[in-house]
Amino acid sequence: MPNYAVGHKTPDSDSICSAIALSYLKTTLGEETVPARLGELSPETLFILDKFGFEQPELKTSFAGEGIYIVDHSDRIQGPDDIDEATILGIIDHHKLGDITTSTPLEIWVRPVGCTNTIIKMMYDFYDVEIPKNIAGAMMCAILSDTVIFKSPTCTTADIKCVEALAEIAGISDAKALGMEMFAVKSAVLGTPIRDLVLRDFKDFNMHGNLVGIGQLEVLDLAIFDDMKLELFADIAKLKAEGNRHTVLLLLTDIMKEGSEMLVISDNADLTEKAYGKTLVDGKVWLDGVLSRKKQVVPPLQDSLA
């Protein structure tokens, strides 16, 4: 029976490409491992898989009695619902250390870099395993996505060096041009159901007993949302009520202006003032320079709810 590599719910490109890349590495090392996903894929991720010739990983939501590698998260709330009934073999992640615990020792690779695939590239180097051309291309795209083509404050020298090395393996002459092509796919939101947009890149967090949902949509021009903000507000309000959440935030991130407009539905009227020193106006606030949910949004918000 194979083991599985699986990312978080509402999987993004890093989560999916990490599962694929880690599965190949582990299988090559003699430990049969299969990539899996906990949800439907975004247009950007589908673009990456199509470009490099991958099928979608298996949609699998139950892992009871099976061995799993957790990638791109370590918060229980973001993983499989029956995670306590699985054997966690390892965690590979670039976020804050979450609350997943185990009864036996496990392999852990956690690094303060911009993308889980950067860490997996380090693992390939450590084990001296050659990266196939198509896997290198997918890993490179995931890093470009997570680092917002190196603009994110989470981006490190390691991420940039990994993209350069992976681009060479994949035969990509202009990695940044491919990154812009990916973000153009991300920006094609017209005609997409509102709930699908809200959940496209959405994560729940347990912040001192408060359930907080944070979604993010990264586009080339925020003007694309002008005619749909009222619908977005209405839907995050529904999402808050449906999940009995304390707060739901939706970041509308403009990668060209390098900032985010945050839409907020919360039990705390002064939430953004306490967390970011910014007062809401009509439920919205502009956060200049904010591109990263994990580094710039989650930590101050979690501290403010303590």
From TrEMBL:
Domain DHHA2: 179-305
Descriptive protein name: inorganic diphosphatase
Classification lineage: Bacteria, Pseudomonadati, Pseudomonadota, Gammaproteobacteria, Alteromonadales
Keywords: Hydrolase, Manganese, Metal-binding
Keyword set includes Manganese: yes
Cofactor names: Mn(2+)
Alphabetical list of Pfam families matching this protein: DHH (PF01368), DHHA2 (PF02833)
Enzyme class: hydrolase
Alphabetical list of SMART domains matching this protein: DHHA2 (SM01131)
Gene Ontology CC annotations of this record: cytoplasm
Organism: Colwellia hornerae
GO molecular function: inorganic diphosphate phosphatase activity; metal ion binding
Reactions performed catalytically: diphosphate + H2O = 2 phosphate + H(+)
Annotated EC: 3.6.1.1
